[in-house]
Write a structure and sequence with these properties.
The longest helix has 16 residues, at about 290-305. The chain has about 300 residues and is mostly beta strands. The protein has a ten-stranded mixed β-sheet with strand order 2-1-5-7-9-11-13-15-17-19, with helices on one face. Strands 3-4-6-8-10-12-14-16-18 form a nine-stranded mixed β-sheet, with no helix packed on it. The chain has one domain (about 1-255). About 15% of the residues lie in helices and about 50% in strands. The two termini are about 40 Å apart.
């Protein structure tokens, strides 16, 4: 299965400042955007690097009817100091064909530059979209819009956000149910330390005519310092009967009873807090690719241990 593939088996495209190193395989250029058309089973990795101020990238991805794809986006800075304070603009548009499947991992691996990232996905009937986004440190403004346009389309959206120092991360996530029998699950896990900011706004909209839809969202931010600014704003907008929907959102410290239990087993308070935070964040990670999971876990633990 694609979801269990090693990253060694993926087609890798190196894209620097929005320009690909070559145009092999499924990749082409149109209107200044990188275009990827996937018509059958495929696994693709995009290594997105930036080293010049005022740069950005646009990527359009089309998944054909019935195709199964695995996509990984990795964002980092090569000589990122040259970028200054200006945000790197990154936009990704995805079109899912009828009955297609896409597993999508978005990894921000460099905290040294500011990213403005937008993701839009249009899902046709009976398509399945699994999205995992990890941002382990740094400043970012991320906007996500997922449209379930066809009957039976489904999405599962997962976010890991870790902020420390003066990091400022803001997320705006919206899932629109526009057809009957659509399904969405949203899980957002954040942790904020020092004087950082972590803001998560999420909306689930079941439009009129989308009867039989099922929407649920869960968001939580752990506050690791009294000086952080952390906020979760969950919302459900429902304009139809015969639907199932629910949401939860919270901001708070680590559970005192959990810390006490771990300390009673001989673990120091600092170690217990680090273990709890790492375990909480990794609950939103994709476990099917062990390489990427271990890479994210290493970054999370490294950031926490540096506090």
């Amino acid at each position: 299965m694609l979801c269990n593939m090693s990253t060694e088996n993926m087609t890798v495209y190196d894209i620097k400042n929005g320009t690909p190193a070559d145009r092999k395989g499924k990749l082409s250029i149109s209107g200044g955007a990188v275009c990827i058309d996937i018509s059958d089973t495929a696994a693709v990795m995009l290594n997105m690097t930036f080293d010049a101020a005022g740069t950005g990238s646009r990527v359009n991805i089309s998944i054909a009817d019935g195709a199964e794809a695995y996509l990984v986006e990795k964002y980092s800075g090569a000589g990122a100091a040259a970028l200054g304070a200006e945000a790197v603009q990154c936009g990704v548009n995805i079109a899912l064909g009828r009955g297609s499947t896409l597993k999508h991992q978005i990894l921000f691996e460099d905290a040294s530059f500011t990213a403005a990232y937008s993701l839009k996905c249009d899902a046709s009937a009976d398509s399945v979209y699994d999205c995992y986004q990890s941002n382990i440190g740094g400043t970012a403004g991320c906007s996500t819009e997922i449209n379930l346009n066809g009957c039976g389309a489904s999405v599962s959206s997962h976010l890991i956000a870790f902020c420390s120092g003066s990091d400022d991360q803001r997320y705006d996530i919206r899932i629109n149910h526009r057809a009957k029998g659509t399904r969405s699950r949203m899980t957002n896990c954040g942790a904020a330390a020092d004087t950082s900011k972590c803001i998560i706004d999420c909306v689930g909209f079941i439009e009129k005519g989308a009867s039989g839809s099922d929407a649920y969202q869960k968001s939580r931010i752990i506050s690791l310092s009294p000086h952080v600014k952390a906020h979760v704003s969950p919302a459900l907008l429902i304009d139809e009967y015969d639907v199932s929907a629910g949401h939860s959102g919270s901001v708070g410290g680590i559970d005192a009873e959990a810390l006490y239990y771990m300390q009673s087993r001989g673990i120091s308070r600092a170690e217990a807090a680090a273990m709890f935070t790492a375990g909480f964040l990794m609950g939103a990670a994709d476990k099917s690719n062990s390489e990427l999971y271990e890479d994210i876990e290493r970054q999370v633990k490294g950031k926490i241990s540096a506090l």
